[in-house]
Each structure stands twice: as structure tokens, then as C-alpha cells.
Amino acid sequence: MSMRYKGARLSTVPPTTSYLEAVGLWTLRQQLKALGQQAWPTSSSQQAFITPGTYTWVAPFNVYSVSVVCIGAGGNGEANPGAIVYGGGGGGLAYLNNIPVVPGNSYTVVVGGYQQYNDGQDSSFNGATIVATGGKSGVFGSGTSAGGTFSGTGVLGGTGGQGGRGGNGGGGGAAGYTGNGGAGAATFSNSGSNGAGGGAGGGGSSVSGPTSYTGGGGGVGILGQGANGTGGAGGGTFPPNGGTGGSGGTNGGAGGPGEEFRGGSYGGGSGGYTGAFVGGQNGAVRIIWGPNRAFPSTNTGDL
Length: 303
What we know:
By secondary structure, the chain is an all-beta fold. It folds into two domains: 2-36, no CATH class; 42-303, no CATH class. Helices cover 3% and strands 21% of the residues. It contains one helix and 14 strands. The chain has one helix at 28-36; strands at 2-6, 9-13, 45-49, 53-58, 65-71, 78-79, 85-86, 93-100, 106-111, 123-125, 130-132, 150-151, 156-158, 284-289. A five-stranded antiparallel beta sheet has the order 3-14-5-8-13, with no helix packed on it. β1 and β2 form a beta hairpin. The longest helix has 9 residues, at 28-36. The chain is elongated, with a radius of gyration of 23 Å. Mean pLDDT is 85; it is low at 1-23.
């Protein structure tokens, strides 16, 4: 028999031949050896950033690898003086697994937001390691309404849906994990397109005339890949039909009064309303760690 380190006290237990055979009942020397070899058991956890801004994330004790998903903000929609509405593009989605980190070190997280009369902002983790770009605006004369994309070595993801620009365009849906967001309706009373690979649906077109308005694209969730979103139906309804969210994201226009034309969370491109600026939806970043966890869908929920 020998004296063994057990928590904060010594305990008499039979000796073991391998420190891996006595998890939770190691000698102090075994614990130090395990730490040095990165063999200490890692608990599973996660952290989400959903408010636009720049943050510092510190790698927790004994965490040497993380997986990250980033979603760019949706583009803004607007109407030109002739009452022709252009929708904003959906935000891109980017993910990367097994990113090496050092416990105690700091890493920069950026969450993109919408900008008035401009494109949606990018979201990123650790600089250029993983970037999801924002959707382009539908601002008359300067915007392209293109969907956001993804970048970084080994990064995977999807492209946001194109915002409609054919005359009365809906907002583009946010990108999916393995596919693209649906395009917004291009012209009067048309429906938006469905998303793919967990992406969100595009917004539908509604009334045309002195007052025109269109639905926002759906948003995409941050808990891993799920069902695809569907395009919003066209027709003369108010509020207009937004695209439904993909992978657990919210529907376009789901925010209630004053939010009827905005994209869904996260990254939905906005629809438009005659003569008024309509902001796209904000992006997001989520970091997960622990054994056997990886995007797009392996144990990616909150644990």
C-alpha cells in the first residue's frame, strides 16, 4: 500500500502502474506529468458572442484545441427614389475545427454588425484564422446585394443568399454550414428561394406601388447544422413574408413591430421599405471545446 494524492488530501490506496489508469486518484507527481503531456481530462464547454464588437477570449485551463463558427452580418436593404426596393445579401458562415490554442493566452473575437447605408460587417476569430464576411448592401447606386463568403486556411462553410435586385427584392438568407443561403425574391410578388446545407431561406416580395416592402432573409443558428430554411412566399400581405431560419436561426421579420423587414438572427439580409433604411441582422461567433466535438454537427450543442 502507498500514500496517494486524492484531491487535497493523502489517501492509502493500492499502487497503480499507469497514471492513465487512475483518473481522479493520481499522485501529485502523476498529475503534474499528465499536465505536461496534455493528458489531463478536458471538460466540454462553449462560449458565444452575439453582440457586435471586438472581444478578447482567454483559453481556459487545459484547453489546447477549439472549434469555431463565425457568421457575418447581413447586408442592409433600401428603396431608391422610384420606390424600387433592393434587398441586402445574407451573411457568410465559416467554421474551422481543431484550432490550436494555449491555455491562458488571449485571442481576438470580432462580431460583425450592420452599418447604416453600407455592407454588413465581417465576423472573425484570431484575425485571419477564420473569417465570415458580411452580406453586401442593397443601397441604390452603390450596393450589390451579394451574399457574404468565408475565408481562412482549411476553413469550410457557405455563402449568403443574394438579395433581390429585380424591382422589389427580398433579403438574402444567411449561409449554411455546408450550403448557401436562399436568394431573396427578385421582383414583385415573387417568393424567396430555399436555403441549402442548413442555410436560411430568402425573403419574399410583397406589395409594389407608391409604398413597397419586402421580407428579410432568415438567419442561421450557431449550435451546428440543422434543417434548411425555406423562402418567404410572395404576395400582397403585410407584414411581408420573411425567409425562415436555417439550423435553428430565427425567421426574417420575426422581431415584431419595426422589425418587419429585417433579416433573422444570425446574419439574415434585410428586405426593404420605400424610402427607409432597413438594417441587416448582426453576426455571431461561437467557440466550443471538449472531446469529440466538431462542426458542422458532432456534439455541437451546448454541453
